[in-house]
Amino acid sequence: MNTREKLRDILASCDGMITRAWLDQQIDALKKRPLPTKDPDRVVDDEHVATTAPGVNGLNNPAADESTKISVLLLTPTAGDLNRLKREYVSKGEPACLRLGGIVADDAVMIIAARVNELASLATLLHWWRFDRYSHIYLIAPSEGPDITGARALAVCQRGASRVTNQITAWPERDAPLFLAELLTDGIADRRVHIFAPEHTAGWEALVGDDNWREGGPKP
Amino acid sequence: MAKRIDKRTPSADAKSNSEFLTAGQNETTEGAASLMEDSATTPEGVADQFRKHRAASVKEEVSSDVVLHQGIAAFSDDPESLQKLLNAMVGAKVLSRAEALAGLRGKNSTMSMLRKIAEHADVILHPEILPFLQPGYSVLYKLARLYEELEANNEHS
């Protein structure tokens, strides 16, 4: 279902006149979308696993290849992923998305697509992927006002000699995180991994859906 | 069988309402009655005509935004013409004098709102969306915002 069809269904669900206040409620509900109800001890969402496309050779675990270091790491966490990241994890008991930190190259680039307020909370987790700070934070669309708390942004972390080949110096024509990540790291031909990916994409190894949250498997 | 409306004979309700109207208002009411199409003699026909007029008003409103922003783009290299256009919008009670004086440099909330509506004209006027909508800048602006939020949600889910 595309975005317009979703909008149509939301509008059709309104009981009465579609007012500014009602539309505001729908916007707020989307911003604070609750997680699906489930057993808190379960690691895997059945509905996500059922719709997750298998990765290359049936593997959805980039951590399975420990011999090739990751040069570009892209994170596009959902609100649900961000909530799960807030939990405390211990080394060797961490889920796949965090376990990848052990195979990130010493001169790697990490790019995170999130809202500005989400980047603030993610800053305390960068050490899992062996980064310590953001080197650049780009808004990917003009802010509607001085308050950028909820604005969509792209944060870049670098380690060692900078391998970022481009900078974002003007409002980009397209704001898709994958497009912008490829723009920033154009020319880096080494291994690329997309964590919290919505789907598998050519040129990237991807952890999709609840494969990010699987425990066990090879240690970094 | 559903009651049919006889457009030639004012209903009893209309007669009682007319007691509260001035002469001018009465003329307006009669003028509005003449807008009813021949097909609007059944509940379905009236509802269809209501939807048609409402959709047309939303279309006109969005068209006005699109025309305004096309004009702004056309005059972007001509400050004098651009200022004339913005001043005309003050006369049309779209912009305040301060907003017009600030031009496109200032943080102009009205212009931002209208621009967003114009940018999403294709969504607002889509045959699956338009029938739900009523006219009003703030409603259409919020609809565009909701669409953007859904798009952002799609990318993050």
Annotation, overall tally of beta strands of chain A: 6
Biggest sheet features of chain A: 6 strands, mixed
What's the oligomerization state?
heterodimer
Unreliable sequence segments of chain B: 8-29
Strand order of the largest sheet of chain A: 3-4-2-1-5-6
How would you characterize this protein structure?
The complex is a heterodimer of chains A (220) and B (157). Chain A is α/β, with parallel strands linked by helices and 220 residues long. Chain A has two domains: 1-32, no CATH class; 49-213, Rossmann fold, CATH 3.40.50. Helices cover 25% and strands 18% of the residues of chain A. Chain A has seven helices and six strands. A six-stranded mixed beta sheet of chain A has the order 3-4-2-1-5-6. The longest helix of chain A has 12 residues, at 20-31. By secondary structure, chain B is mainly alpha-helical. Chain B has a domain at 57-157. Chain B has helices at 12-18, 23-33, 43-74, 79-91, 97-102, 109-119, 121-124, 137-156. Residues 8-29 of chain B have low confidence and may be disordered. Classes of the chains: A alpha/beta (220), B mainly alpha (157). The interface between A and B is medium-sized, with 32 and 26 residues.
Brief write-up:
The complex is a heterodimer of chains A (220) and B (157). Chain A is an alpha/beta fold.
Chain-wise SSE layout:
The complex is a heterodimer of chains A (220) and B (157).
Chain A: H1 3-12, H2 20-31, H3 46-51, E1 70-75, H4 79-85, H5 96-99, E2 104-115, H6 116-122, E3 136-139, E4 152-158, H7 177-184, E5 191-197, E6 205-208
Chain B: H1 12-18, H2 23-33, H3 43-74, H4 79-91, H5 97-102, H6 109-119, H7 121-124, H8 137-156
